[in-house]
Specification:
Number of domains: 3
Helix content: 40-55%
Largest sheet: 5 strands, mixed
Number of helices: 13
Strand order of the largest sheet: 6-8-9-11-10
Order of helices and strands: EHHEEEHHHHHHHEHEEHEEHHEE
Shape: elongated
Distance between the termini: 60 Å
Strand content: 15-25%
Structural class: alpha+beta
Length: about 475
């Protein structure tokens, strides 16, 4: 209880402790001295007067107080005290300390502001990185073009079988060239052409070339190891003292080493190009996901499903070509949907990107494939992406782990596949924002008992469906 001029009349122990006042005895303190802004006291009195005229009292007005340079925020509940003549003589009420809640809300606002600033910066950085990746892809295209004779037909990533065939042939050719070279000339002329330790190195390299599959069982490591061998042999051939051995034998050795080094370099360039293209899409998708809330929301437009699928396929055509995966579209129903075009194309692109990335080669006669179908079911259009490749377990689907932000499937990282674990999360969020959703099915193609030792080593047939209501339907 305070007088009209703010002098404390009654003050309980809790308020004394809050304002750091003596816990016992009379008070000489004045509430006016605790206002962070003295003008707030005048405003509070005027408000209390106005409320009194309306028969009300102040309810939950938050006051900013200062207690020994410490900020204190209180909810103020009070009403005016009047004497018998109706004159205002003071105020009675209570104060509730809400400093922690106010500080928390203030911290949240500051944190949100920093997040928004950081989001903008992340988007800008990712944009710069994707621009750099485009430059890298263009440079790798130029490098690939420089290999005039490309046994792998284009920029696409060669299959394991194609790589194995070419490596075997060129390694065998170089080993044969070494063997022929070591038999040229007599012992005296050979010793003058090369020192003994280099002849021993050539003999060791010849054996390594003929046994590279046994010595290097990891397929991904074979091109690198063979390139090192070819380069070493090439260096030795460059150091041969001329005039002691037939030039044809020396040239044969040099060319065989050069061809193997060139082949293994081409394989790495094509692998790197495909990896960079995959990274490029992943960063673009991550950028769009992160900056969703800071971009201006586009209005929904009515579009045909066919047009949306065309945009999606066009967006990933280069990546599919690089991965040597064929995209097949068929039975695209002619219906319209009301969508945020940018968002839906991103959602569909995420699903197509996953299908391409996790596809396996079915047989030597057929290229890996992804099929896209769109059909109408109960006033909703179902866009289905089907591929043959990496398994998804029953538990991952039933527990919806695949939709968890940042989650990557147990078998998704085989063969060095990159990913962020955002694609499915993002696509489902977009679909649900359009009153749709996503369904996933994944079934084994050979062994149907999970207890089988090769159950998860076999290819699975996976179908991911994004469904949306068609125009004119909820």
């Amino acid at each position: 209880m305070t007088s009209l001029d703010g002098q404390f009349i009654v003050c309980n122990t809790m308020l004394r402790r809050m304002l750091d006042l003596p816990l016992n005895g009379p008070l000489t303190a004045n509430i006016e001295n605790y206002y962070a802004d003295p003008a707030d006291r005048k405003t509070a009195i005027e408000q209390a007067m106005k409320f009194a005229e309306e028969g009300k009292h102040i309810d939950m007005g938050v006051l900013h107080l200062k207690v020994r340079d410490r900020d204190v925020y209180v909810e103020d509940y009070c009403k005016i005290m009047q004497n018998d003549e109706g004159h205002v003589i003071g105020f009675v009420g209570c104060m509730v300390d809400v400093t922690s809640e106010v500080d928390s809300r203030k911290h949240e606002r500051e944190l949100q502001q920093r997040v928004e600033e950081l989001t903008f910066d992340i988007g800008r950085i990712l944009h710069a990185n994707t621009t750099t990746l485009v430059m890298v892809i263009q440079s790798l295209n130029s490098v690939t073009q420089a290999f005039i004779s490309n046994p792998f037909d284009g920029y696409g990533l060669p299959s394991i079988e194609e790589v194995d065939t070419e490596l075997t042939e060129h390694a065998s050719r170089l080993a044969g060239a070494i063997e022929r070279f070591t038999k040229t000339g007599d012992e005296d002329r050979r010793s003058k052409a090369l020192p003994e330790h280099k002849w021993r190195t050539l003999a060791d390299q010849m054996n390594a070339l003929r046994e590279f599959k046994q010595r290097i069982p990891v397929l991904e490591s074979q091109p690198v190891a063979l390139r090192v061998s070819a380069h070493s042999i090439g260096q030795i051939s460059q150091s041969i003292v001329p005039g002691f051995l037939p030039r044809e034998a020396v040239r044969d050795l040099q060319q065989a080493a050069w061809h193997l080094e060139r082949l293994t370099t081409l394989i790495d360039v094509l692998k790197t190009r495909t990896a960079v293209m995959q990274m490029d899409y992943t960063l673009q998708s991550l950028r769009e996901y992160i900056t969703t809330d800071v971009r201006e929301t586009a209005k929904r437009t009515t579009m045909t499903v066919e047009k949306l699928i065309e945009q999606t396929v066009s967006r990933l055509a280069s990546y599919a070509q690089s991965s040597r995966v064929e995209i097949k579209t068929y039975d695209i129903v002619n219906v319209k949907v009301s969508v945020n075009e940018r968002e839906i194309v991103r959602a569909l692109s995420n699903l197509l990107h996953n299908a391409i990335k996790y596809t396996w080669r079915r047989d030597l006669a057929r290229a890996p494939w992804v099929s896209i179908q769109a059909k109408l079911e109960t006033n909703k259009v179902h866009v289905e992406f089907e591929n043959w490749g990496v398994p998804i377990s029953k538990d991952e689907l039933e527990q919806e782990l695949v939709f968890k932000l940042g989650y990557r499937g147990k078998w998704s990282t085989d063969r060095g596949r990159l990913g962020t674990g955002i694609g499915l999360t993002d696509s489902r969020r977009i679909a649900e924002a359009h009153s749709g959703g996503i369904l996933i099915e994944s079934h084994p193609t050979r062994f149907h008992k999970e207890s089988h030792e090769d159950y998860f080593k076999q290819p699975f047939l996976t179908k991911v469906t994004l469904f949306l209501p068609i125009t004119g339907n909820p």
